[in-house]
Amino acid sequence: MKHFLLLTPFIFSVCAFAQEQKPEAPKWQGKFEQLDQTLPTPNEYRSGSGAPGPKYWQQQADYDMSVEVNDLNQSLSGKETITYTNNSPDVLKYLWLQLDQNILDKESNTTKTQTNSIRDSSSAKSMAGQFDLYDYEGGYKVKSVTDVSGKALSYTINKTMMRVDLTTPLKSGAKVSFNVEWSYNINDRNLYGGRSGLEFFPEDGNYVYTIAQFFPRMCVYDDVVGWQNKQFLGRGEFTLPFGNYKVNITVPADHMVGATGSLKNPQQVLTKTELERFEKAKTTYDKPVIIVTQAEATAKEKTKSTEKRTWQFEATNVRDFAFASSRKFIWDAMAVKIGDKTPLAMSYYPKEGNPLWEKESTIAVKNTIEVYSKYTIDYPYPHATSVHAASIGMEYPMICFNFGRPKKDGTYDNTTLQRMLGVVIHEVGHNFFPMIINNDERQTTWMDEGIDSFVQLLTELERYPQLDWNRGKPAGLVPYMKGDKTIMRPLMTNSEQVVAFGSEQYQKAATALFILRETVMGKELFDKSFKEYAQRWAFKHPKPADFFRTMEDASAVDLDWFWKGWFYTTDNVDMSLDNVKWFKLRTDKINLENKEKKVTKGDLPKEGDGNKPNDFSKGPEYFSVIPTDNRMYGEFANRIDDKAVMAKMENKNFYEITLTNKGGLVMPVIIEWTFKDGSKEIERLPAEIWRINETKVTKVFSKEKEVVSVVLDPQKETSDILIEDNVFPKVAQPSKFDELKKKN
Q: Among 421, 406, 409, 244, which residue's Cα sits nearest to residue 347?
């Protein structure tokens, strides 16, 4: 152990400001203690740096399936062969699949656990939904589960999960194939809700199908929890392994189909004209090419073919599959240059979406994959597609379903435009989080919704600066942060237990990352670290600890205090500027001037006299500096020039600031000084200023010029919930008499 002779720094020993200040006892809650004891212990699968470990593994699930949409009775039927590869070190005796359509079964836990109450004058629609008064039978009908030879396998359905028992245990490194045959009735989203389903258009008698969660899918088995076994209750989304897909989709012959993956038989499903336009779109970068026009789609609405056609799609290294089908679809596409690839940005939409969708959707898709690629990894898939459907925003690999519909006459206001652009950017952005950087949506919603909302904001600000974007900005979070604490949950809470879902898992997480980038780390360090996280965990399964550790590992910034405050608590930011005292050095010159003015000793500025508590009107308080006592040098023989130090201090203005942390969330301190000559200066102090006393700090600043006002967080960077106490001189609050007088 090294031993040091503690020497009090000169500036603090002599600048006692002529008054004995007894420091307040620190209120310590461990906000700056490390997260090491909270986060999982690093191992050979996940390293302490946040990178995948040398023995990281993940499972693979490949699908070969054929499905058919019955447009007459609005049902779907399918057969699939799943090939499951066990890359884990474990032997598996059974497999677990997700049956997410079973959330619509009358016996689902979702229905049983929903709470409600009778309210007078409730709408018929809301009452029908609450008490399941519609004539609809939802959920999967599993016809069979067999091995590749057709022999029945034992299976057990537990609500939204299905266990398949293997005849022979699946060893590490081995694979097994089995078949599932099923069907279900497609839900009307207007009546039953859901992330997929159909929309009916009574004027022309047609449907738009946006189909997802349509097949029994493998659960994730990983190194952290084994099988993902949390039931689907409706909010926590889908945790899925990567794999390769071959999917045949049979629909009415006049339907257009958009799906995950590449279309493998365009010659069989597109007309010659459509095929020519499709090929042209692949080399057109400046604007979308209309492949199916509105006039062509409208004509098909009237004829309604009774023939069938099968579309063939293939997708490599994706975690899910979804598709959309309708004879109402207009279709446009354009090429986008991303690194050494040229993916297509595409949109499908009924005429009810025009003219808004034809003008904006595909351009928004292009903007999204360009900006997200800049901050993460180059977009790797052959296309990114936006499909228009009423009152929904939902994402799947390469395809998403989005709201934003103009009025019946085709007009729309700025709010409709902004909401439509926001949802398209958000859902297309989900291709990156979680479709590629594949976190566990069932458990940690913020890792996809919050991170995606953050990069969404960066995209909006870069590509649509003319619009007023709010979600994700610090000031936009203030109404939530100053709200009812009883409904708040930490971000590290499973989504099913969250009350203020959008405000927390989307907005709060996005705002935290925005503040981390703009105020705490700085853009350069943040962007490098964030890109490192994306590159490390692309096509893998990251956990929160992997994100936290990577951001610190790649930046050399200790952020444990930040993760603890923003992600593990419901604290808010509420700093107050309690007082500012102005001091100047007492000099012989000042004493001489007062003597010439025949000022009596009693009129001289007194040490400790202080200012008024709320302004600078009384002028500075004077303090003395005395020669350094030799005892302060300890064993050092050298001496400083006391007079030179005093000379440097002579014309300086010293400002002692006292700050209080009322909200509990420690944050950097941002101070704006306004000087007598009208100039301004912004000074930034790291959050570690709170590390000794987490509730109150006092600090002295030296300035060449006189200060007339001081403001904390002048640009509203920290989501401080009360800005009225961030200013000095204090703004006089009106009395009750003044308020009454003003009213009268």
A: 421
